[in-house]
């Protein structure tokens, strides 16, 4: 594997590649690194490599001709420009780059590079993160390091590269070595036990826990294996959604009981099924309303034409009060649920800690307790009458002040934010 760095500051590149794994690989000839300096392709006596920007503005732009000549001198290879405007570098991209045999890493300085150089002589723009460096050299070193360690023969063991963070979509589990006690801190006993299956399970759980809490973005993309799903069932599978018809408020804040609606039952049951929830509860103290809900659900469950909807309606349960659902879940799971309220108003449930959907998932992902999410019908949950609420979800925000989503729409949006996969 060959790397050619196009840079005005080769002295920033060369010394950084003499030590460690990459330094050894370079010495052994497993990788080859060279620099080409655009300043060597100038013809004026000041060896000018920058110029003022057309259109004005602060700073300077790299002069095209010396840069183009240096890129040409670098030879045939995949030409990458390091830039804060590039696509974010990922381990997946690093793995692809490691299959190529020559990377040309072009480093900008000053405010940047003439767009026509990018258009004519760059294959790909990559960013190493959302911050600005004074030049592309440190980014080029990052790419060299990340790619080189995947080149066969650079790392000692061929397996130790794939075992790590990001390759599996999870963060690394914590590592320990001797001494067994360090300033009063011990080593998790499972690691010293010699039970390899138990160690593997512990490490996997640690990796999952860390990923869920530290990197909700990665956790959302993570696809557990069948065995993992069995060992650590997903949060959705122990989440219950409830549509509350009492106690809720009307438009002036009076506590009321709302009437059941057919569309709410059908649509929220289908949303619950789509996102893998355990059940959808309809809560009303009115016996005839509960009978009606049961009737609506049973109607479809007997219908062969509506087979898909039938499966969703099997999730429907009815209860006379929130406390009844809590008691039922406590009995079913052997521990009470975390009760989560939703509200369109920022001021409701002032005592409950506020959580974004991502924070709630992070907090709960590997907590074995069930979760009960309350949706209010009418003008929302009567917060002072529901003391069991221990978390409140941040309101769904649209474009402006007008915020009157139907409970069906709010429920679907919420479930997608909590449990929806990203492609
Ligand atoms: C790379 N994240 C930050 C700085 C201009 C090409 O134009 C410019 C390049 C740089 C160097 O790259 C970065 C960077 N990933 O700052 C300014």
Give the topology, please.
Elements: E1 2-6, H1 10-13, H2 20-28, E2 32-36, E3 50-51, E4 61-62, H3 64-74, E5 78-88, H4 91-97, E6 102-107, E7 112-113, H5 115-121, E8 124-127, H6 137-148, H7 189-192, H8 196-214, H9 216-221, H10 226-231, E9 239-244, E10 248-249, E11 255-256, H11 262-274, E12 279-283, H12 287-301, H13 307-313, E13 316-319, H14 322-333, E14 338-341, E15 354-355, H15 357-364, E16 371-376, E17 391-393, H16 407-419
Parallel strand pairs: 1-2, 1-6, 4-7, 5-6, 5-8, 9-12, 9-16, 12-13, 14-16, 14-17, 15-17
Antiparallel strand pairs: 3-4, 10-11
This protein binds (3-methoxyphenyl)methyl 1~{H}-pyrazole-4-carboxylate.
Descriptive notes:
The chain has 423 residues and is α/β, with parallel strands linked by helices. 36% of the residues lie in helices and 17% in strands. The strands form four sheets. A seven-stranded parallel beta sheet has the order 13-12-9-16-14-17-15. α11 crosses α13 and α12 runs antiparallel to α13. The chain is elongated. The mean pLDDT is 94. The site of (3-methoxyphenyl)methyl 1~{H}-pyrazole-4-carboxylate has 16 residues, from β5 and β7.
